[in-house]
TrEMBL record:
Pro residues bias locations: 43-60
Residues in the signal sequence: none
Protein name as annotated: Plasmid pRiA4b Orf3-like domain-containing protein
Stretch list, region Disordered: 1-60, 331-375
Pfam families listed in its UniProt record: PRiA4_ORF3
InterPro entries for the chain: MM3350-like_sf, Plasmid_pRiA4b_Orf3-like
Species this protein is from: Polyporus arcularius HHB13444
Length: 375
């Protein structure tokens, strides 16, 4: 009987024999693609590690802060007044809106920056909302009664762009290109390029790019004042949850301050009412939005920093905007579930469990699921 080949240790392998083995750079296409599927000869390099999300931490400190009003459109009495650093990006702004209105962030969103804003009356039911706006890139509309030809020419060139936003901000920025490219020798292409709405990535645009200490340095380059610029934030694009963000002067008419030392955290000065429950099937049993209570934790100086770290959560409930410690809320829910299970077992042992009680327990669990919100 032929003896089985002996197992050699690593140190027994000859260097010349090891060198003869094909390495990754010396292997042929057949080694990598023995069946001829057309794979690349060299394997793809490993993908770089994911970079940390810049919105998971506060923005850099800024020596200027601006006071803004966050008005939930179509809901009278539901608003927030906040002082924000001008270093706040639109990505931070999105996360902050989720916190102050108790939304989950499970829906699409975008923001429009609009200029030459006209607001609704401060004494009316839509205080804080934008009534109308027009593009600062479009010349003012001529009076058709004074010069009908000038008005017709304006309407032909600019009529469709009169109400365009000054900027559109999305999570991923612009995704379209012109095919074929614009011809800058063509006057119509030049006009189109001048009127085209720029689309920016939310992490690359700050509040300081929109409002400035001096109006001539704001987004419109002085063609309208800071008070005439606003942000229309759209959340859940199919359901139109809109937040109108406008400048909110104090009683002395000031809305922007220089601060020392610089700040990077928002300061919530006023918060009234709460948003309706997100994705609810009906508003049965829900308190009127303007009468909803707000957790005191929302006014904590470090609430937004803890929210970004995942330590704090918020959710819109039927009677309040709840802001809570995530770990404590999880422990509370676990204890509540255990207590319900204990009571159910006790009723089963006593023989008093019936279908109606079982349905009531299920309804209570459903209510808790509606109340729970977590980032």
């Amino acid at each position: 009987m032929q003896a089985a080949p002996s197992k050699r240790r690593i140190e027994d392998v000859d260097d010349s024999e090891e060198a003869a083995r094909p390495t990754a750079s010396k292997r042929s296409r057949a080694d990598w693609d023995p069946y001829g599927f057309g794979f690349d000869v060299h394997p793809s390099p490993p993908e770089p590690a994911d970079t940390p999300d810049p919105t998971s931490v506060l923005p850099p400190p800024s020596d200027k802060v601006i006071q803004l009003r966050f008005q939930l459109s179509r809901f009278k009495g539901v608003y927030r007044v906040v002082r924000l650093p001008l270093s706040f990006t639109f990505a931070h702004l999105y996360r902050f809106i989720l916190l102050i209105f108790g939304w989950s962030g499970h829906h699409l969103h975008e923001a429009e920056v609009v200029t030459h804003v006209e607001r609704y009356s401060p004494n009316g039911p839509r205080k804080g909302e934008v009534k109308k706006h027009r593009s600062f890139r479009v010349p003012e509309e001529p009076d058709r009664h004074e010069d009908i030809r000038a008005w017709q020419e304006w309407l032909f060139k600019y009529g469709k762009n009169d109400r365009d936003p000054a900027m559109l901000v999305k999570p991923k920025g612009a995704r379209r290109q012109h095919h074929p490219p614009l011809d800058m020798n063509d006057p119509w292409d030049v006009l189109f390029a001048e009127l085209e709405v720029p689309v920016k990535k939310d992490a690359e645009v700050t509040l300081g790019d929109i409002w400035a200490w001096k109006s001539r340095h704001n987004l419109s380059e002085g063609r309208c004042s800071n008070m005439e610029i606003a942000i229309l934030f759209h959340y859940d694009l199919g359901a139109s949850w809109d937040v109108h963000i406008t400048v909110e002067p104090d009683k002395d008419g000031r809305f922007m301050w220089k601060v020392d030392p610089p700040r990077n955290a928002p300061v919530i000065t006023v918060a009234k009412g709460g948003a309706p429950v997100e994705d609810a099937h009906s508003d049965y049993g829900e308190t009127e939005p303007k009468k909803k209570k707000i957790s005191d934790l929302l006014f904590a100086p470090d609430v937004f920093a803890k929210y970004l770290e995942g330590e704090i959560g918020s959710t819109a409930r039927k009677t309040e905007l709840a802001v809570y410690n995530v770990e404590e809320e999880r422990a509370r829910r676990q204890a509540l579930a255990q207590e319900r299970q204990r009571q159910r077992l006790a009723r089963e042992q006593a023989g008093v469990m019936d279908e109606e009680e079982d349905e009531e327990d299920e309804d209570d669990e459903d209510d808790d699921e509606d109340d729970w919100g977590e980032e």
